[in-house]
Every structure is written in C-alpha cells, then in structure tokens.
Amino acid sequence: MFSSIIQALLNGLVSGTILAVPAIGFTAIFAVLRYPNFAIGSLATIGAYAGWFANLRLGWPLEASFGLAFLGAGIATLAAEWLAVRPLEKSGALMMAICSLAVGIVLENMVRFAFGNEPRGFNVPLMRDIRFGDLRISPQQVENFAVALLLMALLWAALNLTRMGRAMRATADNADLARLKGVQPGTVAAITVMVGGGLAGIGGMLVALDTAADPLTGFRLILSVFAAAVLGGLGSIPGAVLGALIIGMVEELTVLLLAPNYRTAIGFAVILIVLTVRPSGLFGERAG
Amino acid sequence: MSILSIDGLAGGYASADHIVKGVSMSADAGEMVAIIGPNGAGKSTALKLAAGLLRCTAGRVSVGGADITAATPQSVLAAGFVLVPQERNVFAALNIAENLAMGAFTTPALMRQRREAVYARLPLLAQRRGALARTLSGGQRQLLAMGIALMAQPKVLALDEPTAGLSPMAAAELFATIRALAKDGVAVLMVEQNAIEALGACDRGYVLVDGRVVREGSAGGIMADEDIRRLFLGGRKAQHAVATR
Lengths: 288, 245
Ligand SMILES: Nc1ncnc2c1ncn2[C@@H]1O[C@H](COP(=O)(O)OP(=O)(O)OP(=O)(O)O)[C@@H](O)[C@H]1O
Ligand SMILES: [Mg+2]
Known about the structure:
Chain A is an all-alpha fold. Chain A has helices spanning about 1-35, 40-55, 60-85, 95-115, 140-160, 165-175, 175-180, 185-210, 220-230, 235-255, 265-275; strands at about 130, 135.
C-alpha cells in the first residue's frame, strides 16, 4: 500500500507538472483579458494534432514538433480571440466566456473533420520503464516532465527579465495604470493570447505523447485545467502551478481508492470546495 | 509662455461625457498650482482628459508648445505631461524597482541612471527597492507613485490628491518633496482635498465647481476669499454662492 501511494504521488507529480502548462496558459489569459477562455481544451487538442502532424507527417523530431504545437495552437487562439471573442468585449466577461465555449466546440469539430476520429500516436521509441525499487516511471514521462519544467523556467524568465514580460504583469495587475504609462493594451493582449494558447497546445501535445492525440484530448483536460487555475487563484501563475500539482496528485491518489471513472469528479469537487471556502483561491487577492 | 496650457477642455466618460464643461488652466515651469473644489466637481476627470485617458469633446491641451489634445497616453508622456492618478497609482504586484521601470521607455543604461536619480530624491524607495508595492504603507505608495512619474522626466507633473489618507507628518514631507521638484523647474499641478494646506503650499490656484473654473488667482487671493472659505468649511449653499457668482 505504502509503495503504491508513493507511486501515485510520483505519477501525480509528473501529470501535475504537465497539467501546469495549459493551466498557466489559461490563467495568464484570464489575468490580462479578464475572461476564462474555455476554448483552451480544444486549443490543447489543436496543439496535440499540430505536434503529431509535425512529428509523423513532416518527420520532424519531437523538439521541433513542440514548436509547431505552440505555434498552431497560439495562432488558432489569436484568430479565435480576434474573430469571435473580441467583438463581444462590450457585452462583458460572461458573454466572452460563453463565446469561448462555442469556439471550443467549433474547433474540436474542425479537428475531427481534418484528422478523423481515430487516435493518432506519436513516433516515440518504446522503452523499458526506469525502476527505483518498487517505483517505476517511463522515460517518456521523464522527458515530458523535463519539457514542462523547462517551459516554466523559460516563461518565468520572459515574464521577469524582459520589458514585455514586465508590461504583461503590470497590465494584469493594473490595466488602467499600465495604459497611462504608455503600455499598448492591444499588443500585450495579443502576445498573452498567443503565448497562453501556445502553452495549451504544448500541454495537449505532452498529454498526447503519453497516450495518443484524439479529438477529445483537450476536452478531457479542461476540467482539471480549470480546477487547477481556480484552486491556485484565477490569474495567478504560481497559483496555477501549485493548483496543477495538487490536482495531479489528488487525481492519482483517488485512483487508488475509487474506480478510475471517478477521477473526473475530482475537478468538480475541487472547484466546488474552493468556490465555497475560499473563492479567491490559494494565491488570489480578489474574491470571486 | 506657460509650459502647460489647457484651453476650454471639455469631456467625460463614455457613459457621461458632460462632466468637465470647458476648463482653462495654465502653469509655468517651476510653478505650483492647486486645483481645489468639492467632491465630484470633475477635478480628476479634467486631469484624465488632459492625460489622454479619456476622450475630450472640446478644447486644447499643449505642453511646451506641443499639442497633446486627444493624443495617446504614450505621446502625452513623451511630451512631458505626467499624471499620478488618485487611485490605484502603483503596480501592487510588482516590486519598487519594477514599478519605477514602468515609468519610462528607454535604454537599460538610461533606465538605471534615471532610477538612481529617483532613489536619490526619494531615499525611502531606495531602501526598499526589492519590496512588492502592495507591502508599502499609504505614504510610501504615494512616494512610489511620484517616483514612477519622475522616471518619465516630466515637464508638467499632475498629482491627483497626493496626500489623501496620509498622516499630517507624511503629508508635510510629501509637500516638501513636491516643492523641491518645482524648484528644479517642474510645473506642478496638484488636486487637493485639503484646500487650505494646498493653497498654502502653492503659488496659484483654480477652484473647480461642477466642471467649470469658478475662481482663479494667486493662492493668497483665493484663500482670502470669503465665499471660498465658506465653500470649504460650509455646505451646499456656499458652493452654490460660488458657482453663481
Ligand atoms: N468612470 C466613471 N464613469 C462615469 N462617471 C464618472 C466616472 N468617474 C467619475 N464619474 C463622475 O464624474 C463626476 C466627476 O468625478 P471626478 O472624479 O472627476 O470628481 P473629483 O472632483 O475628482 O472628486 P473627488 O474629490 O471625489 O475626487 C462625478 O459626478 C462622478 O460621479
Ligand atoms: Mg478626484
């Protein structure tokens, strides 16, 4: 029992770190644009397929395929933002959120139309699991974990060490003052949407690498992503990371106790508890 | 010629565009000008119109001869007009050094130079440069807000209630800092709730009531005015008396 708990925690650490990537994207878009972009699931799916396309059809190595996953999902997010969501800006955050939900459905079906319904596996060599005593982890898991960590480090550097990153954080914190200080809100919004969507795309590809890409890859992710962001405090990047780690581990632990189908319930339960007990989440300042 | 001249400025918000109804003001380099008036008179709105945050429906604003009417906040800043807003005037989630960096768009070398100049003028900020702005006291925040503004090397500094919520001592210190700035040639435009204090510190003043300038002149002259005294000590009747004079 003890070793299976440790194994579950290890799996949760890996899946939570991977989950953190799209959760950061989701929370960053919320921080700057002030609405929850529920298309993030389908955008992750697009990333998974873009990565698969690069890897299988174009024969690119995985590293380069991540680039196409980022770009494909990022551009799709930007297009959806400009064509569908932005025109509703005056109608408020709720309308924008609902619109993003609709965009998500449209995108998912576009993926179905383009690639069909059957799962698409990546070209990854089959390798033996790495073992430490009773614990086991696949090399692919280790690699995905490393990619997620590297991405977070890059993002941290971009946000904290560059002028645009600072402008993004300033806009998220106080949009009016940022504008007064000469920050162009449109540019910051576009870059945030592009990067946020791109991260969702990479998240989708990371998940697909573990199993396969299918039209519901992102949909299965969306509840966990939302739960992680809400738990950490919507709009907080460190919060999204911590929230994702907790969600990842709790999901894996429940598999020990309950049938795997109940895994989905964790997201709902966490959202419900957080919204009741501490609506601002772990790192959020504002309530609600 | 005045470094700042505002002529017949009018405008307001998208939902209520008739707040400021034709305001004219000016300020010379090194001059301190007080803007006083009752709550809701449109003092903050007038400054936001001048700073390009709101769209004006009429009037002209120029700084050092450059027309900045309806300009973007960026060009207003570049022309040398810098506003410190009344509320939410620092980036709470950023540290002091980053807050200052938000005040200027320039090369890293110049940025460091300007930041050191601000630290020299406001030593309190230098002591806490790594601290997040949200951990600062009210007085420290006002200093930081002014520091951010100074990063842009303003010709005209517009301060919206810089001493609101400060202790008398902190307010006095802030006034001293502002006076030192003016001495260095910055034109200071200051909205203040405490009219007597503000007029005491400034050279000239404008009294704004219901979106219009109802009285202007030397600080001493305004302070000596019976109606004005009643306006700020008394209630609505006095406001009406001033407004209809
Ligand atoms: N964002 C806004 N949208 C619409 N109307 C506003 C907005 N902000 C202020 N107003 C209105 O504009 C008028 C002038 O407000 P303003 O803030 O300029 O007054 P003020 O003279 O600065 O007052 P105070 O001394 O309280 O700061 C008020 O009637 C106010 O209700
Ligand atoms: Mg005001």
